[in-house]
Amino acid sequence: MSYRSAMKTCVCSLVLALLALATVAGAENTLPVEKAVLTSPPNVPPPIKRTTPAKVVVELEVVEHVGPIADGVEYTFWTFGGTVPGSFIRVRVGDTVELHLANHPDNKLPHNIDLHAVTGPGGGAASTFTAPGHKSRFTFKALNPGLYVYHCATAPVGMHVANGMYGLIYVQPEKPLPPVDHEFYVVQGDFYTDEPFGVKGHQPFSMQRAIDEHASYVVFNGSALSLVGDRALQAKVGDRIRLFVGNGGPNLVSSFHVIGEIFDTVYFEGGQKSQTDVQTTLVPAGGSAIVEFKLETNGTYLLVDHSLLRTFNKGALGMLKAEGEQVASIYSGKELDEIYLGDESVASALRQQHPTPTAAKTQAPGAAVDGKEIFAKSCAMCHQAEGQGLEGVFPPIAKSDYLMKRAKAADRGELVGLILNGLTGKITVNGNDYNGVMTPVSGLSDADIAAVLTFITNNWGNSGAQAFTVEEVAKLRAQVAGKPMGAAE
User: Fold this and answer.
1) Which helix (H) or strand (E) holds 255?
2) Whole-angstrom Cα distance, residue 288 to residue 282?
3) Global confidence as pTM
4) I want to staple 229 with a disulfide (CB 3.0 to 4.6 A). Which of 42, 89, 435, 478 is the partner?
């Protein structure tokens, strides 16, 4: 081939390439343009009803701010949109997404965004490195349907993620998922502070604890308070629920579970494949899942990480309250509460074979049985061995103004009701607020309740309360039986 012929071929190829690019650009320029609806957790934008692609403009602002991570505990969060997790983004497969990232001028650090839904180097991170007081923009095509994590990828990446810089983007498939009554947005994250869980005041980030993966807090939606009490998710009996679940990490895998429910369908790892009848689903750091279930009967359902010490000691607890009638054919509630002596049980046989020395019983005057022993078996797991509780999680029984106010009242039925029916909602003990769930204590006789209440109201700095008698407890039990206990000051 001559030099002239080769040049001709190159020019023709270049022209064809430019024409192809112009055609693509022209096609994209004809797309309808819409601004993305962004929502703060736990809310989700409405399903997209259009059946063809569009150009979707997404505007996110990075905000560094101080907020509560637990009761009385403040933390400096770095966020997309002012919340942890960041704003929920919903687009449709085939859409062209124009993403604008603004870094508020009051912020201290540069940030960027890496979206796992992006096909391209860095997921957009290199194109969005943005200093405080600046904006960046890039465009990508949503090629793959699914639920994807996005996060900051500015060095040190782990620190930016650990401070709350993550969220979810849902690329809705061409054939949408079946409609449900409620869609909610829940993301787990692990946080690392100098002090352990619940220590009051502003707590700084600890890089060493993060490197060692010793989380101080493991929470849903950025705080141990985000989905409990008045902030609990709300629905009704008969509603079908869809949870878009993510895990921002940066380190820990989530064993996501809803106590009292079975997931009818799980789209595992946020993709299109599904499994049915699932009890617990793994959500890796930087991963997601979509879970669906129907609320068959009323009550409060708990969202937890089934690595349970994270739930009860580090804050990974949420609530979904289902209003409506109890459906007895689905769940009856307690049907029996009677004395069980266990004379013929395996435990009794073992004790006879291997007797243990009899220890002196420590109980308050008037207790018919050993109140300390009952406390150790039924109460100490939460309220701790000496009644000290866990700060910010379980209220103290020792030197408890809440307890003693009721122990010395004319009607002491509320304390009996707490044991039999549990307690939900906010209470104040010794000037500190607690907002959680105390589960009912089952299997205790009137004598057991009299003993344990007498014990705890006359020990650990509690004094002056009259002993509870079996007759008194029997009378009070009849008055409070079956009555749910709401929080009362």
Assistant:
1) strand 254-259
2) 9
3) 0.74
4) 435
Residue with tokens 């921002």: 248
Residue-level pLDDT at 366: 46
DSSP-assigned letter for residue 121 = G
pLDDT band, very low/low/confident/very high, at 394 (cuts 50, 70, 90): confident
What is the C-alpha to C-alpha distance for residues 273 and 487, in angstroms, rounded to an integer? 43
Could you read off the pLDDT of 86-131 as tens digits, one per residue?
999 999 999 999 999 999 999 999 999 999 999 999 999 999 999 9
The pair of structure tokens assigned to 464 is: 């002056």
Distance CA 77, CA 130 (A): 18
CATH 2.60.40.420 residue ranges for the chain:
33-172, 182-323
Give the total residue count for the chain: 489
Structure confidence by residue, pLDDT tens digits, 138-178: 999 999 999 999 999 999 999 999 999 999 999 999 999 99
CATH of domain 182-323: 2.60.40.420
Mean pLDDT of 361-372: 56
At residue 476, what is the residue type? L
C-alpha torsion angle, residues 200, 206, 208, 210 (rounded to 10)? 100
CA dihedral 70, 71, 72, 78 (to 10 degrees): 30
Helices (H), 47-156: none
Burial class, 416, CB count within 10 angstroms (exposed 0-12 / middle 13-18 / buried 19+): buried
The architecture (CATH level 2) of 33-172 comes to Sandwich (2.60)
| Gyration radius (Cα) of the chain, Å | 29
Q: In CATH, what is the architecture of 346-480?
A: Orthogonal Bundle (1.10)
DSSP H or E stretch at residue 219: strand 217-220
Structure tokens at 83: 């919340």
Comparing C-alpha atoms, which of 409, 375, 376 is closest to residue 488?
409
Q: Of 310, 44, 256, give the one whose Cα is nearest residue 169.
A: 44
